[in-house]
Design brief:
- This protein is an all-alpha fold.
- Helices cover 74% and strands 0% of the residues.
- It has two domains: 53 residues, no CATH class; 211 residues, MetI-like (MetI-like fold, Orthogonal Bundle).
- α3 runs antiparallel to α9 and α6 packs antiparallel against α9.
């Protein structure tokens, strides 16, 4: 598709902006394929004479990235599953079921969006300590779910509000209860919103550093961001290992977003378009 003349100024502004965003990642990837002597010498974007794929093998084995990725995958799977199990029914109830105090409950969740997790980290830590969940993957999953539920409910409620009430009324006339309406009518329609919720929850959980830093102590239960910091502080002067470990950390996130960006955009906009 050839851009029109009116789009040229926008494209001219996007090109340098894109370079500013992409350049650090490109420099990091190229540097991770160099030897120690080649890093920081000459053109930072010039490819080395020989690509050092061995850097990734060394970083993987030395840094224990297999265990870190395994912990992160368990963490992400637990958070995504609980977010779906809680936010989807709650979004349906707050949008399609009339009961006393419904609006106030929704406002309470909206108020939760305005509170940074740093403001409630002490009571959250005390609750997890009382439950015996400090330094466990179960504890960090519950902590991240509690932090993400307000946004998840807001997203699902906004989508369900765009679904015509006539569908609910028709299902009630046919004798369906609210559980049947949710599972048989609304879930098939809400796949774009659910996919957006899954992607947002997965990306934010994978990249989260603050909550795992507070909850997880032992290296054997730490997630990938914590393991990367520990790895970088141990091998401070070995730039090839640090750069390779950093690429191993962020590459899955970039691949996931590239593969799902269309569904992500559809999930965020479809509800608004329906309304």
């Amino acid at each position: 598709m050839i851009p029109s003349r009116k789009d040229l100024p926008m494209l001219a502004a996007l090109v340098p902006a894109t370079f500013v965003i992409v350049a650090p990642f490109l420099w990091l990837i190229i540097s991770s394929l160099k030897t120690e002597a080649e890093i920081g010498v000459g053109d930072p974007f010039a490819l080395p004479d020989a690509l050092m794929w061995q850097n990734y093998v060394d970083a993987w084995s030395v840094g224990g990235f297999a265990d870190l990725i395994g912990n992160s995958l368990i963490n992400v799977a637990g958070v995504v599953l609980l977010m779906l199990l809680t936010c989807v029914p709650a979004g349906y109830a707050l949008s399609k079921i009339r009961f006393p105090g419904r609006e106030w409950i929704f406002y309470a969740f909206i108020f939760g969006l305005t509170i940074p997790v740093q403001a409630i980290i002490i009571p959250l830590y005390q609750v997890l300590t009382g439950l015996g969940l400090i330094n466990s993957l179960t504890g960090i999953v519950l902590a991240q779910v509690s932090n993400g539920i307000p946004f998840g409910i807001f997203l699902m409620r906004s989508f369900f509000l765009g679904v015509p009430n006539e569908l609910t009324e028709a299902a009630r006339i046919d004798g369906a209860n609210h559980f049947q309406i949710l599972t048989q009518v609304f879930l098939p329609l809400s796949m774009p919103a659910m996919q957006a919720l899954v992607i947002i929850s997965a990306l934010s959980t994978w990249n989260d550093f603050f909550l795992p830093l507070v909850v997880l102590i032992s290296p054997d239960v730490q997630t990938l961001p914590l393991g990367l910091v520990r790895f970088a502080s141990t091998y401070t002067t070995s730039y090839r290992l640090v750069f390779s470990g950093t690429v191993i950390t962020f590459l899955p996130v970039i691949i996931l977003f590239i593969l799902t960006q269309r569904r992500f955009t559809e999930g965020l906009t479809q509800g608004a378009l329906k309304g």
